[in-house]
Amino acid sequence: MTLPMFPDLAPALPEIVPARLIKGEVTAVLAALGGDFPTGDVAELTLGYDGIEGDYHAGSTRKSGGREPWYPRGTEIRNERQVSIVAEDELAIAASAMGIERIEPGWIGANLVIAGIPLLSMLPPRTQLFFEGGVTLRIDGDNAPCRIAGAMIARNYPDMDQTSLALHFVKAAKRRRGIVAWVEKPGLIRKGEKITAHIWEQWIYPAG
Fold this sequence. Notes:
Elements: E1 20-31, E2 40-41, E3 44-48, E4 51-52, E5 61-63, E6 76-78, E7 83-86, H1 88-98, E8 112-115, E9 128-131, E10 136-142, H2 147-154, H3 162-172, E11 179-185, E12 187-190, E13 194-199
Helix pairs in contact: 1-3, 2-3
């Protein structure tokens, strides 16, 4: 018997993929301490609930931009983009597609470079990254590539067409530009730390 508010035939549940754990390692830690988004190597990252101490993207809130067209530009919103995380293998694929030698993580504002987690940029929202030093980051989602980051890459290849290269990054790095996350549990992160990614149950919400 079903309650009057529900149909007699309940819709079938979508396929549910069980939760899983994946191990990885921090291969570089970087921070943007110069008043702009490009980052440089640092000895360690100090993270609080506002993000990375002194980093360009630190803060409990941020101003909305082109990524949030549902708000007037400059609207104050929650900062879910406190930490930028990339994988060297994905950046290498993007660089090859662009016809360039490499994309350095710091050129596009990465704070963490992680190895050992396949398809890092495809980790789903809500995934938790547990660092052996005690920090926990919560993934918001993939970091869509933009031509601003592309322009920063292009500066390092002055002999190539700057506009074309910047725009090419948007396509070449789609779903390969890494992920953004916010601080769930603060502390220190150092190069060489082991990581456990906790991927929660997943399913595709049915259409219709």
